[in-house]
Design a protein that fits this description.
Oligomer: heterodimer
Strand content of chain B: 35-45%
Strand order of the largest sheet of chain A: 1-2
Number of helices of chain B: 8
Distance between the termini of chain A: 55 Å
Distance between the termini of chain B: 45 Å
Strand content of chain A: under 5%
Helix content of chain B: 10-25%
Structural class of chain B: alpha+beta
Largest sheet of chain A: 2 strands, antiparallel
Number of strands of chain B: 21
CATH superfamily of chain A: MetI-like
CATH topology of the largest domain in chain B: Rossmann fold
CATH superfamily of the largest domain in chain B: P-loop containing nucleotide triphosphate hydrolases
Number of strands of chain A: 2
Strand order of the largest sheet of chain B: 6-7-8-3-9-10
Radius of gyration of chain A: 27 Å
Helix content of chain A: 55-70%
CATH class of the largest domain in chain B: Alpha Beta
Number of helices of chain A: 15
Chain lengths: 307, 364
């Protein structure tokens, strides 16, 4: 029976059985579990963190005095904090391009059938499942002056060992190398997935169009994966701004604060010096920096795509 | 423009042979269709000519020059792909110019050729757009345009109409025929659609199971199928087949069947092999519903096509036969009808599927 054929007297009867169209408060029940977790564990702490950053908050006697922007002013003149901001930016600049370029290069090289490529894909991705503790132990051994693998190799060529971790100019690059080695697998996999989406017919058309390999890469492959390019870049910017474990375990932020990132500063201020207000203010600044960097990247690519 | 010669070519994928010792000559300026069911090797053969598949043995020559060792781009052929394969991030103009830029054609010449192709294909207003902003039919033209600007010695089409809806397919078919009349370019057209092959091609190559079944003009393929496969594959509805016994009557074959057929054909008995079983092949238009006919049966299904009617008739022994009747046929399911078979259009097929028919010009 069609709806139009129903008499008005029948319609409410059908409605009472629950078959009706339109908003209903009961629908909210289905989203409530997620909504509660989202509000309780994400939205509330976000604003609570902002509130804490405006207070002088002592974790020992649990006293909190409203301090307006005093924490932010203090950070602006704190050389250690400013140094950690500089280190973090430097670290992002060192690692993100490396993740994109090396990840893409590996994906291009391993985007083929065959056992060798499959094994190598697994190997390159395999390091990503290691814990940061294990990774830093491996690289501490690598960097050891005298007995470390790098020193041994250098000495084979008659070169003097390099003290990566104790050199203030090499400590941060050492952390960056460790990080790239550790989690290069994810960008590689994302690029691989994107490459496999490109129809094989496009490459056949390019072959018939006399396109060289370089030209094919430049004019067909790369333009086809711009979206993944953006995703990988933004993801890595957000992830690498949060450098913590590798720096803590490999260099403890040293020597002389040369490899101290913002998150390590936040951790030490909050959980060693118990100055939660200052730590919260540093967190808000980190949040702003990350949001800004990701947005810049996003809009830059959008403009490049539109052209 | 140039002729294409395939000289005993074979192709294997691992242990599986997909093309077996195949030879074919395609004349310069000819429009030829490779027709066959999927998996028969027709697309592989086209891709071998294009250079997208290697040739395991044999030679391919284009305009007398051997090309099977050359890179695809150096063979002087252009291909239109089934899914068009337009570069999605380039405009249509860039798509068409891409191949010419790669061989360093002067940009003025590129512009000239692209504009000319766009004019012929009526896609000039679309040149600045990207493939994603075009309809299926427009993309198809852009893909043809990309082939056209290369001024190739031969065009290769890989099922180019299979992604279009029915109405557009018919229109594009006509346009392709017109385009070929204008350019007179050697063209190979791969399709599994016998109507496309019949309407477009000057000659059809019917392929089945790795090899060529028959090569001929459309009406030759339709009227004189050399094998049972060709007879079944070409023509709609498919040819009727009935098991028959063959006897000699003054040097001509006379066939009788348990279903009630008694037909004196014009086929020479001496042309038939001895000791074979035979099947009679007869097309619907050679089996007319006619009150004066001699073959009785009962109507099962009536398909009305407007200008004519196909009547599925169950014969005495249970075999069915599709017969033709006028557009205004009064046949209805359950009716008893009589059929008149046209003996001059009868085919006989032996147990190996080879076909036999009356010699040309013979009357019955």
């Amino acid at each position: 029976m069609s709806a139009a054929a129903q008499t008005p007297a029948q319609a409410p009867l059908l409605r009472a059985r629950g078959a009706h169209i339109g908003p209903d408060w009961r629908s909210a029940l289905f989203t409530a579990p997620f909504l509660l977790i989202f509000l309780g564990l994400l939205v509330y702490p976000l604003f609570w963190g902002m509130w804490i950053s405006l207070q002088e908050y002592d974790m020992f006697d649990k006293s909190a005095i409203f301090a307006a922007l005093k924490n932010y002013v203090a950070l602006a003149s704190d050389p250690i904090f400013l140094g950690s901001v500089r280190n973090t930016f430097l670290f992002v600049l060192l690692t993100v391009p490396a993740f994109v370029v090396i990840g893409l290069a590996l994906a291009l090289a391993l985007n083929r059938q065959g056992r060798t490529a499959a094994v190598l894909r697994a190997v390159y991705f395999g390091t990503s499942v290691l814990s940061v503790t294990i990774v830093t132990i491996i690289w501490k051994v690598m960097y050891l002056p005298g007995r470390g693998l790098i020193s041994v190799v250098l000495s084979l060529f008659g070169l003097a060992p390099i003290a990566f971790i104790s050199s203030s100019s090499l400590a941060l690059p050492a952390v960056a190398i460790t990080t790239v080695w550790w989690i290069i697998g994810l960008p590689m996999m994302l690029f691989l997935a994107a490459l496999q989406q490109i129809p094989a017919e496009l490459y056949e058309a390019a072959v018939l169009d006399n396109a060289s390999r370089w030209r094919t890469l430049w004019s067909i492959t790369l333009p086809s994966i711009t979206r993944t390019f953006v995703v990988v870049t933004i993801y890595e910017i957000v992830a690498q701004f949060q450098l913590f474990g590798q720096a803590l375990l490999l260099t403890q932020g040293g020597p002389n604060n040369a490899s101290r990132p913002i998150v390590l500063f936040i951790y030490e201020t909050g959980f060693r010096d118990w100055n939660l207000g200052l730590a919260a203010a540093a967190s808000e600044i980190l949040f702003l920096l990350m949001a800004l960097a990701a947005m810049l990247q996003y809009f830059a690519t959008r403009r490049a795509e539109a052209r | 423009m140039s002729s294409i010669e395939l000289d005993r070519v074979s192709k294997r994928f691992g242990a599986v042979e997909v093309i077996h010792d195949l030879s074919l000559r395609i004349e310069s300026g000819e429009f030829i269709a490779f027709l066959g069911a999927s998996g028969c090797g027709k697309t592989t053969l086209l891709r071998m000519i294009a250079g997208l598949e290697s040739v395991n043995s044999g030679e391919i020559r284009l305009g007398g020059e051997r090309i099977d060792q050359l890179a695809p781009g150096q063979r002087g052929v252009a291909m239109v792909f089934q899914h068009y394969a337009l570069y999605p991030h380039m405009s249509i103009r860039e798509n068409m110019a891409f191949g010419l830029k790669n061989i360093r054609v002067a940009s003025a010449e590129i512009d000239k050729r692209v504009n000319e192709a766009a004019r012929i294909l009526e896609i000039a207003p679309l040149l600045a757009r990207k493939p994603g902003q075009l309809s299926g039919g427009q993309r198809q033209r852009a893909a043809i345009g990309r082939a056209l600007v290369k001024q190739p010695k031969a065009f290769l089409f890989d099922e180019p109409l299979s992604n279009l809806d029915a109405a557009l397919r018919v229109r594009t078919r006509v346009e392709l025929a017109r385009l070929h009349q204008q350019t007179r370019a050697t063209t190979i057209f791969v399709t599994h659609d016998q109507v496309e092959a019949m309407t477009l091609a000057g000659r059809i190559v019917v392929m089945n199971d790795r090899k060529i079944e028959q090569v001929g003009a459309p009406m030759e393929i339709y009227g004189q199928p050399s094998t049972e496969f060709v007879a079944r594959f070409v023509g709609s509805p498919a040819m009727n087949f009935l098991d028959v016994a063959v006897s000699d009557s003054n040097g001509l074959a006379k066939v009788t069947s348990p279903s009630g057929v008694h037909l004196a054909t014009g086929i020479l008995t001496k042309s038939l092999p001895v000791g074979e079983t035979f099947r009679l092949g007869i097309r619907a238009e050679a089996a007319r519903v006619d009150a004066t006919g001699v073959l009785p049966g009962a109507v099962e299904v009536v398909e009305r096509l407007g200008d004519r009617t196909h009547v599925h008739v169950r014969l005495a022994n249970g075999e069915t036969l599709i017969a033709e009747d006028a557009g205004l046929s009064r046949a209805a399911p359950g009716d008893a009808v009589k059929l008149r078979l046209d003996a001059s259009q009868a085919h006989l097929f032996d147990g190996k599927g080879r076909g036999y028919r009356a010699p040309a010009g013979a009357s019955n």
